[in-house]
Design a protein that fits this description.
Low-confidence stretches: 1-25, 710-719
Shape: flat
Number of domains: 5
CATH topology of the largest domain: Alpha-Beta Plaits
Number of strands: 28
Distance between the termini: 28 Å
Radius of gyration: 43 Å
Structural class: alpha+beta
Mean pLDDT: 84
Largest sheet: 6 strands, mixed
CATH class of the largest domain: Alpha Beta
CATH architecture of the largest domain: 2-Layer Sandwich
């Protein structure tokens, strides 16, 4: 069925006729103009399908919706259907068939405009029949509903995001209609109390109040009174009785959202959030505080309480034994004057005064190590942490200090410095870490590689990085799950791995892990030696590229193609999947070389390879076969489809002249794989097809497979 353009004889919808001289009365012209303008504004066009004349007429608005020009588009019914989205064509054809059987024609579907855009339209129509029940014509409209569909989809997504956010946050929504004494709860309000989601969600105020814990009623009632008296918003925490008889802590928020003409509240709205876990955590924290008080008396570390001016108020047994004095004699002494060496006294007192004046809250934020002097004059190193104790007004009243004697550890660190000096001079990266990958040491080579601050970490302080920060996820998982266990069993473990450099790129390395089992209570440690092998890998990559990539065109070479084709042959034989091979050749390439020179010829081959590579599918393989010949593997494709793909390549090359030599053409031969044949058989048939294309005048496509009339007359497609 033909679709005619909206010429001057079609009226506003292609139905009406006009006098042959084109004359029309002004009222008709005005009315039609207004109707056309109305169609344009409403994005609704009209159409008529005349079954007697076998034509379809469109109004101008239909052409606009479909993105077509009335004077440049002539098509059959099949061409019209080609404008319908492929996934919708079956539904559209079914709707047309149903309309011809007497049903109403009303369908929404997508169309493909020539500019590549997809629009959504709604078509409505009705078939008129003659007295014998034969269809005469079908009249209808087409409405562009793309914008409305997008708005509906956006609204749906927004509603979905809100529901997902509500589910993730697990909050309920309530609404209180004061005049009607109705409190509405959504499903989440009931769920957090253990009820079924479909529990009736309307309560009276008395019913609601009966669910509140008796100890919380006074606060809740007061909050309601304040809210109804004019406060904008409120927040209150209270308990509800659950379905199982227990109590759930809830944080209620709300505000008045509607007032009557006299300014009296009429409706409130708000949310419920289950805070039972938070309340349980607060209770556990309180119990932990009580346990901490008992811990002070039995702790294996030094515990001191310093009051105003640094006077000792409390010292535990470990403190007394370390200081070589008893508890009675130590209380009341000035800590800084009696037990801190003079060199460190000023700094320590300044830190203490800062804590007592709210300037800092915790000394352990600066991780302080300092020496003390015992009553016998011995110098001991202590690692200190401290917490400010506050009175009921929140003002500092004392500092609780906790100290660990690290004197022996410092001696051990000094012995290790000799080894560290050797490691610092090593060109390879050396790290020491714990079983979780936290780094406790890194030599200068590592610090320089990652642009980390120069110098070693302070004694006892880990570097501010871990192996997880320095290696990609796949590499660190292998180190933690394979390397560490293997090193514990055999003493060491070696592997090719990778690290992330300062620019965020992966660098290949050779990595050795050595285990240091714990001794004398020490923690388990691992050392890792990392050697950069990126230069070696680049050499290997270049060798691989030279072996499998064509140096002139930068696409795979013949060796690589044969390897891929062999695998595809095996796959096709095993699973019965079809595939085709395409062999192509540059027409008159020798003449081009003779005329412009070999250097220009090479440029043409390179540019041709890039254009051909752009034409292939992601699953296809394109390679240079030799000289000016190229070959392509097309998986999962039959001969006719392969010929179409080859024709597309041919047109692309023909239609885009080359910068230096102008127009270049190619000839292509296509062969489909036939079960049982070898690689050589398949390529020979593609070569025969190429010869056929050449012998018939070049710049064309030919293809055949076993079963064709003869190799000398293969199937052929031409541009």
């Amino acid at each position: 069925m033909e679709i005619q353009e909206g010429d001057t004889n079609s009226g506003i919808d292609g139905v009406g006729t006009e006098p042959s001289d084109g004359s029309r009365s002004p009222p008709c012209i005005s009315l039609e103009t207004e109707l056309l303008e109305a169609q344009r504004i409403a994005q609704v066009g009209s159409w008529l399908s005349d079954f007697q004349e076998n034509v379809i007429r469109w109004s101008p608005e239909v052409y606009r919706i479909f993105g077509l020009s009335p004077n440049a588009w002539h098509a059959t019914h099949e061409a019209f259907m080609s404008l319908v989205h492929p996934e919708d064509r079956g539904r559209v054809q079914a709707a047309v068939d149903a309309a011809l059987a007497g049903d109403a024609y009303d369908i929404e579907h997508r169309i493909l405009r020539p500019d590549g855009k997809i629009r959504i339209v709604r078509e409505r129509g009705k078939v008129e029949f003659d007295g014998a029940g034969r269809p005469l014509q079908m009249i209808g409209t087409v409405h562009d509903i793309t914008d409305r569909k997008w708005q509906e989809e956006e609204l749906r997504r927004r509603e979905l995001r809100f529901r997902l956010a509500q589910q993730a946050a697990r909050f309920g929504i309530w609404e209180w209609e004061l005049a009607e004494d109705r409190i509405h709860w959504d499903a989440n309000c009931w769920i957090m109390l253990g009820y079924a989601p479909d529990t009736p969600g309307v309560l009276s105020y008395a019913q609601w109040r009966a669910m509140v814990h008796p100890d919380d009623l006074e606060d809740v009632d007061e909050q309601w009174r304040r809210q109804l008296a004019g406060n904008d918003r409120f927040t209150i925490e209270f308990r509800y009785e659950c379905s199982h008889g227990g109590w759930a802590w809830v944080q209620g928020r709300g505000q008045v959202i509607e007032y009557d003409d006299e300014g009296q509240p009429q409706r409130l709205m708000g949310t419920h959030v289950d805070i039972s876990q938070i309340k349980r955590a607060e209770q556990q924290a309180h119990q932990a505080q009580q346990r901490a008080k008992a811990y002070l008396n039995t702790a294996g570390v030094i515990m001191l309480t310093l009051g105003r001016n640094g006077i000792i108020e409390m010292a535990n047994q470990r403190a007394c034994s370390t200081l070589k004095c008893d508890a009675r004699s130590i209380v009341g002494l000035d800590w800084f004057e009696q037990f801190v060496p003079e060199r460190y006294r000023h700094d320590m007192r300044a830190r203490f005064n800062a804590m007592m004046t709210n300037h800092i809250l915790r000394l352990h934020e600066s991780r302080m190590d300092s020496p003390i002097l015992t009553r016998t004059g011995e110098k001991r190193w202590i690692r200190w942490t401290a917490v400010t104790l506050r009175d009921e007004r929140g003002l500092p009243e004392a500092v609780l200090c906790s100290g660990e004697d690290i004197t022996e550890q410092r001696h051990a660190w000094q012995e290790k410095e000799k080894i560290v000096q050797i490691l610092e001079a090593a060109p390879d990266i050396v790290c020491s870490c714990d079983e979780h990958g936290r780094i406790h040491y890194m030599n200068r080579a590592g610090l320089a590689f990652w642009n980390l601050p120069d110098g070693l970490p302070q004694p006892g302080e880990p570097a501010p990085v871990s192996l997880q920060d320095l290696q990609p996820d796949w590499a660190i998982q292998r180190v933690l799950k394979e390397g560490f266990p293997a090193a514990l069993q055999t003493g060491h473990w070696c592997v090719e791995s990778a690290i992330i450099n300062a620019q965020g790129e992966e660098t290949p390395v050779h990595q050795t892990v050595v285990a240091h089992p714990p001794e004398n209570g020490d923690a388990l440690r691992f050392s890792t030696l990392i050697r950069d092998i990126s230069l070696q890998k680049r050499y290997e990559t270049e060798l691989h590229r030279q072996a499998f990539e064509d140096t002139l065109t930068a696409i795979p070479n013949r060796r690589h193609f044969e390897s891929v084709l062999e695998k595809e042959l095996q796959r096709a034989e095993r699973y019965g999947h079809p595939f085709s091979v395409m062999l192509l050749d540059v027409d008159h390439f020798k003449s081009l070389n003779d005329r412009f020179g070999h250097e220009v010829g090479d440029e043409v081959l390179y540019a041709l390879a890039q254009r051909l590579d752009q034409c292939r599918r992601a699953s296809d393989t394109l390679a240079r076969w030799g000289g000016e010949e190229f070959i392509a593997l097309l998986p999962e494709i039959l001969l006719d489809q392969a010929i179409q793909a080859a024709e597309g390549m041919r047109r692309r090359i023909e239609d885009e002249p080359f910068k230096t030599v102008g127009r270049v053409t190619i000839s292509l031969g296509v062969a489909q794989f036939f079960p049982g044949e070898t690689m050589r058989d398949l390529i020979r048939r593609a070569d025969q097809a190429l010869y056929q294309a050449k012998s018939q005048g070049r710049n064309q496509v030919a293809g055949f497979f076993p079963g064709s009339p003869s190799p000398d007359s293969p199937c052929k497609g031409r541009g």
